[in-house]
Amino acid sequence: MKLSTSIARSILLALAATAGHDAFAQDAAGDLRPAPYQVAWQDLEFGVIIHFSTNTFLNQEWGDGTASPSTFNPTQFDPEQWMKAVRDSGARYVVLVAKHHDGFCLWPTEQTNYSIKSSPWKSGKGDLVGDVARAARKYGLKFGVYLSPWDRHEPKYKDSTEYDKYYNAELEELATRYGDLVEFWLDGAGSAGHVYNFPKIIETLRTYQPNTVVFADTGLFEYGDARWVGNEAGIVDYENWNVIDRHGYRRWRPVEADTPLRDKHWFWHPNDEASLKSLYTLLDTYDKTVGRGAQLMLGLAPDNRGLLPDSDVKRLQEFGSALKKREEGNLAMYHLPPSSQEVAAALDGNSDTFSSAPAGSHHSDIEVQFDHPVTLDHALTMERLNNGQHIQKYAIEIWSEPDQKWKAIAEGQAIGHKKIDAFAPVTAKRVRLNILSSTEAAEIREFQLYNWSQPGSH
After folding, report:
1. Are 45 and 418 in contact (CB under 8 A)?
2. CB contact at 8 A, 371 and 336
């Protein structure tokens, strides 16, 4: 799933001619803000990416483009079973791998016969992309697609000009046939020296899908709307800032962290139950992705029947139930009346409202008071990002009665979309979010407190 050195070089070559001018324009714009569609995408927080193709039937992760289309024949294909499990997990959007690196297409493309048109599935009359898109929307999920630039089957790949036409024709089909696309994945695996025409790819997409988030590594600095976390473990292991400076070109590029439900496996494999991640691992992954201001993209793999395995469905349901259970334990909902309506907006459990610090301020705080001591071990904070990411240093603090002073129990720099701070259980009647430094007046959507170590909280 990661960008190779060769593709990164291709990206730089393709965009170098325009980088200098655009860098000046970005710097001159001052403090960067996200586009409205980026704000909406970040609020989705958790999505899945689905791998299902000829690899599913051949017990392999990477195909070389030689598999016969006759290989693809799921006899119990049920995308609604997939989407119900996705919804139950708490995910809000789905990205389907419409074409992986082997070049086999899951929709009846007019560009090649290397597709489901040549498979026995539905006698070659099916449209798997369309079926999944409809099922996703039926279950209230946003839908997007992954279209691999690398194609190990298509003969035109050896000719950059001809392959660019081929790829953009495929993209135009996907962008015009399946409704609004929430996300378009540009995976960077492979390239074999091919220099991709990324400006043309994005031009094609934007002609029909102006509000689609484009996922790519930071190498695609001119056009990407979201960036890769840098690993496939689903972990953000750094202070997470949404604005990234690449070669002097600053852009709002939030992180998406991808990791499969089954350890190191994106496609289904037989006799593979030991790879299914535990509920504890999934919750830990969530806290280290969504809980560090990123999107979690969980990889799902239907089996050769065309169904998600029963064990996967069960684990997804457990995950969704655990997340919902945790959300129900917000201690801050039971605070004493705050001193102002501004503070109340950060404690109401409604992320559509927010608290604003005084205009021009660079330091502020939000205090929660209880009528009796409460025990807590986690804090959840959401920064309103519509006007940019401003908080640069903060602390979660409790009032120590014996010492008569505030004591920090968690500290950090970036908050961003959402920050979950874990700490050893403490008991206090007063807790506060102390914004120690912000470039502009801090805007806080939510400040929530939890005790997840108590029995039943996970």
Report:
1. yes
2. yes
Look at strands 243-246 and 93-99 and give their pairing: unpaired
DSSP result, 183-233 = EEE------TT----HHHHHHHHHHH-TTPEEE--TTSTTT-SBEE-SSSS
Tokens read off for 50: 């689905």
Structure tokens at 83: 């989407």
Predicted pLDDT at 395: 98
What are the extents of the domains in the chain? 5-327, 331-450
Q: What is the CATH number of domain 331-450?
A: 2.60.120.260
Question: The whole model's pTM is what?
Answer: 0.91
CA distance linking residue 430 with residue 372, whole number of Å? 9
Alpha helices in 62-159 (DSSP H): 79-89, 128-138
| Per-residue confidence band for 14, with pLDDT thresholds at 50, 70 and 90 | very low
The strand ranges marked E within 342-413 are 355-356, 364-383, 391-400, 405-412
Per CATH, is 5-327 categorized as 3.20.20.80?
yes
Contact status, residue 444 vs residue 340, Cβ threshold 8 Å? no
- Which is it for the CA torsion 297, 301, 306, 307, positive or negative? negative
Average pLDDT over residues 109-123: 98
CA-based max dimension of the chain: 77
| Cα–Cα distance measured from residue 218 to residue 93, given in angstroms and rounded to the nearest whole number | 22
Find out whether 119 and 56 touch, Cβ atoms under 8 Å.
no
The answer to whether 142 and 136 have CB atoms below 8 angstroms apart is yes
d(CA 142, CA 44): 9
